[in-house]
Amino acid sequence: MNLQSPAVALAAALRDGRLCPVELLEATLAAIEAQNPALNAVVTLDPTARDQALAAREALRRGEGGPLCGLPVGIKDVTPVAGVRTTYGCPLFTDHVPDTDGPVVARLRAAGAVIVGKTNTPELACGGHTNNPVFGPTRNPWNTDLSPGGSTGGGAAALASGLIALAEGTDMGGSLRIPAAFCGVVGLRPSPGLVPTGPLLGDDLQVSGPMGRTVADVALMLDAIAGDPLPRGRPLGGRAFREVVDIGISEDLRVGWCPDLSGRGVDPSLVAVAEDALARLGVEVIEVDPGLQDDHDTFAVLRGLWMVEQHLPLLDRLELLGPDVAGNIRYGLGLRPEAVARARRARRRMMRSVTRLFEQVDVLATPTVAVPPFPVDSGPPTHIGNTPMRSHIDWVAPTYLVSLLALPALSVPCGLDRRGLPVGLQLVGPRDGEARVLQVGAAVEAVANVGLP
Q: Is 411 marked active-site?
């Protein structure tokens, strides 16, 4: 079976004996050996992967094994995997080997997944371009001169090139959604609390989440990592997320479309591709304005605060960190209590405003990213279209503003731009609305039919 087959197809073939976990792993490792040098997506292999595949084979022979049994999964190199080097893309942790799995990895293992290894990330997952001083840059499988985005860029590139079946990642300002858009795969930022993350308990700014080649793959993985029973019950009358995807959308679905969520601009070619996909859904599309254009400083302040709390043990070694990480931490250290209080108030206002919006529409749609993939060697862009950016992160504003809402958000490929590169559509649902965005995402996926490089 083709390694680029959807994970749901691979899982079915493993379950009925048409595919063996050990053979699938061997094919996966061969593909990594052949293709990864040009991509630099997978940075460390798990030395126990073959033992895991053997255990999965025996579980399947006994008629046991979880929903991901035998599927090769990549873990972002900021998420701990017991016994496997986890560097965070940071020279301070080049030889760091955790003793225990992160909670999301533990759930993947319980579901039978085979942990193949670690995927590349910017240093300490800071930034939308995957490059770090430990492993260097990751390249986009659609065009290796281009960036895969970030910070889960290694996972997205590995998926798009068929090196893994599923990818785990984290998302604070868009780290699952941005690379999904650039690499033509699917990435979900779940509602905070649905999937366990760490190390900050109760953190609702950064989440862990799934990435796959299709919406159904993401739903399959979400069922595994969200746990059983789910914290707030299963969606739509007890159905699993994977089952929900197949239900489809109703004709009375209302999509709220916002071509420029941030007010900082979006490349017109991306808007055109997204609007064409929405037009082919055959549902009501209403142009809306969630009113988030003035909230850029809110994200900057709360991200700065988060960076300080997340990296408290490193405050005496800032000079050893890269400029992006150190700059964000220093910004957070310089915040006054008044600025933090204003940002928290503003965030609550944003949440109330969008809650009212979901009384008028069922899902909010925006372009995932404001720019197409940029050259890997030049780094993040300075312009949106022909307009200079006011802030160096304006190009990811459509995702970071949504992160502040603490709502589920899915990036799904909705077409190709004039260069033949994938375009991502961001679908945002109400609180605990994962089922809704997955259903709409599957419908978009069907009309777009983007495929893989």
A: no
